[in-house]
Amino acid sequence: MKARTALLSAALSASLALPAGATSRDVVIEVRDDAGRPVVQARVLIAADESDAVGVTDASGRVTLRTQSSQLQIVVDKDGRQAEVRSTAEHVSVRLQGGAR
User: Fold this and answer.
1) CATH number for the domain including 53?
2) Can you give the residue range of the structural domain that contains 38?
3) Is the pTM of this model over 0.90?
4) Are 46 and 67 in contact (CB under 8 A)?
5) Are 84 and 72 in contact (CB under 8 A)?
6) What total number of domains does the chain contain?
């Protein structure tokens, strides 16, 4: 019974975290270094009021994240280097200073 109650509580909490009727959208984030090369395995975060989305860039320096926010605050981190941008676009390019590593 405890496990069932905990499961129902977790499901209810998750459903309350999303605004009713909110629509989500995919945002493609492309991370490049100073020379325009893709940055692989960079951690990407979309910080939003509703909920955060986190992912890691692929071999082309891209990651697709789903969000419900129209105002995006995107934070990219790789090997201690960090970049932050704000955008409303569905395709966002981020320049990470210091090389592809």
Assistant:
1) 2.60.40.1120
2) 21-95
3) no
4) yes
5) no
6) 1
